[in-house]
TrEMBL record:
Swiss-Prot/TrEMBL keywords: Amino-acid transport, ATP-binding, Nucleotide-binding, Transport
Keyword Nucleotide-binding: yes
CDD domains: ABC_TM1139_LivF_branched
Domain ABC transporter: 4-228
Superkingdom as given in the UniProt entry: Bacteria
Organism of this sequence: [Roseibacterium] beibuensis
Name of the protein described by the UniProt record: ABC transporter ATP-binding protein
Family indicated by similarity: Belongs to the ABC transporter superfamily.
Pfam family, one: ABC_tran
SUPFAM superfamilies reported for this sequence: P-loop containing nucleoside triphosphate hydrolases
A molecular-function term among this protein's GO annotations: ATP binding
Length: 228
């Protein structure tokens, strides 16, 4: 069943248009990778889905029209975002950061700590004392505590060391396997996305340039639209 649909969505920053008729969909339990070169509109697409930026066109989630909803309402419907730049409350502990995000459902502290054991070991530590990778795990944990039906990861491993990146991707793969949560994952490293995504959407200049099964994404196409 389809969970999220964007139909002919346009969005602008002032007079500068960033999305030019974005059309895509994500099914329940599907993991979709969104890729494209810098500035092509990946984060802007995420902002329109999360209702952080006004948009024209149709945005539907679970049969509801999202277009006129606020970001709070979108979150309440089950759209969980891990934004670029891993925002946590620096002066709160790991545990407090997770608890303030909590909404009733599947996820609780024990489940988050099972997914990210490092967070359990540091639950009484202030977020500001965590490493970059641990802060990213906390940001994912916070999004999960809202019990989303779609989890969006925007450049979740950017700037992190390879071992930490691997740990995060491994957790995301486990999340997918164990819970079947729908995922929209934005990243630049195709190799890692291949481990978690069923389908790829490549975007260029605010539009979908190519989409298909991850297995069908060949070197020529990825070179053309992602540059890898
Ligand atoms: P990156 O990989 O660099 O994050 P992206 O694909 O996520 O790139 P967007 O951030 O969505 O790209 O940017 C799409 C276009 O919108 C770019 O031309 C960018 O310069 C422009 N843009 C993004 N944010 C703003 C803003 N706050 N104000 C004005 N223009 C913006």
């Amino acid at each position: 069943m389809t969970l999220l649909t964007l139909e002919n969505v346009t969005a602008s920053y002032g007079t500068s248009q960033a999305l030019f008729g974005m059309t895509l969909s994500i099914d329940q339990s599907e993991a979709v990778a969104m890729m494209g070169r810098n500035g092509m509109g990946k984060t802007t697409t995420v902002k329109t889905i999360c209702r952080m930026l006004p948009a024209e066109g149709q945005i539907g989630f679970d049969g509801r029209d999202l277009t006129r909803l606020s970001s709070h309402q979108a979150a309440r419907l089950g759209i969980g975002l891990v934004p670029e730049g891993r925002r946590c409350f620096r002066d709160l502990t790991v545990e407090e950061n997770l608890l303030v995000a909590a909404r009733p459902g599947h996820w609780d502290l024990a489940r988050i700590f099972a997914l990210f054991p490092r967070l359990g070991e540091r639950k009484k530590q202030r977020a500001s004392t965590l490493s970059g990778g641990e802060q990213q795990m906390l940001a994912i944990g916070r999004a999960l505590m809202t019990n989303p039906r779609l989890l969006i990861l925007d450049e979740a491993t950017e700037g992190l060391a390879p071992l930490i990146r691997a740990e995060i991707w491994e957790a995301v793969a486990r999340l997918k396997a164990e819970t079947g949560l729908a995922l929209l994952v934005i990243d630049k490293t195709l190799k890692e996305l291949r481990q978690v995504a069923d389908r790829a959407i490549l975007i260029t200049r605010g539009q979908v340039a190519w989409e298909g099964a991850m297995a069908d994404l060949d070197a020529e196409t990825s070179e053309r639209y992602i540059g890898v």
